């Protein structure tokens, strides 16, 4: 006989069944939470997250007290090539320690001669005057002959005082020249001034260089004061000269100037841009004194190569360090003319050891490296050094540097 279950008994059984299922779920959830707890704690410690109560983690609290270093650990020069792990931050830097670039003055380029806008010329005239008054401020720069704005940017990131762009002998076209001048000024954050040597009778190159913001123009093969005066007229706006105004070098309402009432930066150009006659012939040396006496000449440059050829002297002897007396006499006359009229000399150093002598003899703008020569020398010296190392193993593929057999 089967016993019957009444309504009350059925209700009791249902409650017990539901309660059993609920209890089983509670046990499962509790067990899972307990197993996951260690992982959650490790994750919280690794990320430095806040506690549920809103309190800051121990790491951040200690960092705020200054007891935890959140900066990147400096790498010693002795282990910089191997100890990469020491370059990692000791703690993840918190956003609350972030300082805007404008507040970190030590990151800013020291650019005392820059213009208000980096598409306008820096104050090369003031830079030359400061160097003439204090030789320790002599401008040091790089000559740029490779027609590549990528190379310009690389040079500019080293922040030389100037980049000398050679259009007379370099392969720069009009657009490359324009972009190279802008690249030099922007990638140096205004620290680098641009000096351009243009072909003597090339109005297009002269106009392009000036409109792009060149701070100095070198006029090659200058032989008389009259030539200098003619170029002054071409290089400067009125009333100083007759330079044509370009509508593409400013933005109405947005362009700014260091000078009051100068919305088109006419004063910037007239006050900042330098003219640098280059004397490189017998006639030029004869007229050096009158050339350097012209009002408006900011510096003067000597061209030894062309002078030697024009004078019929041996270029090879000068390159070998054994110049002829006639050449030294011409250099002396050139230097004396510059000194008499208090005009700085601009030129290049064939070696870094020449720099003290150049400063002593009146140079206030010195090219210390040439991109073509520097690149070639670096490649040549690296290859020669590498081949020298390889030569130690000559005749014995298993030899070690001291010549002893390499142990098997």
TrEMBL record:
Instruction: List the GO molecular function terms.
Output: aldehyde-lyase activity; metal ion binding
Which Gene3D superfamilies would you find in this protein's record?
Answer: Phosphoenolpyruvate-binding domains
Q: Name one GO cellular component term.
A: cytoplasm
Transmembrane residue ranges = 12-35
**Keywords for this entry?**
Lyase, Membrane, Metal-binding, Transmembrane, Transmembrane helix
**Where are the stretches annotated Disordered?**
388-408
Q: Which InterPro entries match?
A: Aldolase/citrate-lyase_domain, HpcH-HpaI_aldolase, Pyrv/PenolPyrv_kinase-like_dom, Pyrv_kinase-like_dom_sf
Q: Where is the HpcH/HpaI aldolase/citrate lyase domain?
A: 154-348
The source's domain of life comes to Eukaryota
Tell me what this protein is called: HpcH/HpaI aldolase/citrate lyase domain-containing protein
């Amino acid at each position: 006989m089967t016993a019957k279950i009444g309504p009350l008994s059925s209700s009791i059984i249902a409650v017990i069944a539901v309660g059993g299922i609920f209890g089983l779920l509670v046990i499962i959830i509790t067990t899972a939470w307990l197993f996951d707890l260690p992982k959650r704690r490790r994750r919280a410690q690794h990320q430095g997250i806040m506690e549920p109560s809103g309190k800051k983690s121990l790491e951040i609290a200690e960092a705020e007290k200054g007891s935890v270093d959140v900066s990147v650990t400096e790498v010693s020069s002795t282990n910089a090539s191997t100890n990469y792990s020491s370059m990692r931050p000791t703690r993840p830097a918190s956003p609350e320690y972030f300082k805007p670039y404008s507040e970190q003055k030590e990151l800013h380029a020291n650019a005392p001669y820059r213009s208000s806008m980096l598409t306008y010329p820096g104050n090369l005239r003031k830079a030359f005057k400061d160097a003439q008054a204090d030789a320790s401020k002599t401008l040091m720069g790089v000559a740029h002959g490779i027609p590549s704005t990528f190379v310009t940017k690389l040079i500019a990131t080293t922040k030389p005082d100037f980049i000398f762009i050679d259009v007379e002998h370099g392969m720069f076209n009009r657009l490359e020249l324009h972009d190279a001048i802008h690249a030099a000024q922007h990638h140096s954050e205004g620290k680098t001034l641009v000096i351009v040597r243009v072909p003597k009778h090339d109005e297009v190159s002269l106009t392009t260089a000036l409109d792009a913001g060149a701070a100095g123009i070198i006029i090659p093969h200058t032989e008389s004061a009259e030539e200098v005066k003619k170029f002054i007229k071409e290089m400067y706006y009125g009333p100083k000269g007759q330079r044509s105004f370009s509508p593409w070098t400013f933005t109405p309402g947005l362009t700014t100037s260091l000078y009051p009432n100068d919305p088109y930066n006419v004063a910037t150009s007239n006050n900042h841009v330098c003219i640098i006659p280059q004397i490189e012939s017998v006639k030029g040396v004869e007229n050096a004194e009158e050339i350097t006496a012209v009002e408006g000449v900011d510096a003067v440059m000597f061209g030894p190569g062309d002078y030697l050829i024009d004078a019929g002297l041996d270029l090879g002897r000068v390159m070998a360090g054994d110049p002829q007396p006639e050449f030294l006499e011409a250099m002396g006359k050139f230097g004396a003319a510059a000194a008499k009229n208090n005009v700085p000399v601009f030129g290049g150093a064939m070696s870094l050891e020449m720099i003290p002598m150049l400063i002593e003899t009146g140079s206030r703008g010195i090219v210390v490296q040439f991109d073509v020569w520097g690149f070639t020398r670096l490649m040549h010296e690296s290859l020669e050094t590498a081949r020298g190392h390889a030569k130690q193993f000559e005749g014995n593929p298993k030899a070690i540097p001291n010549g002893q057999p390499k142990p098997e």
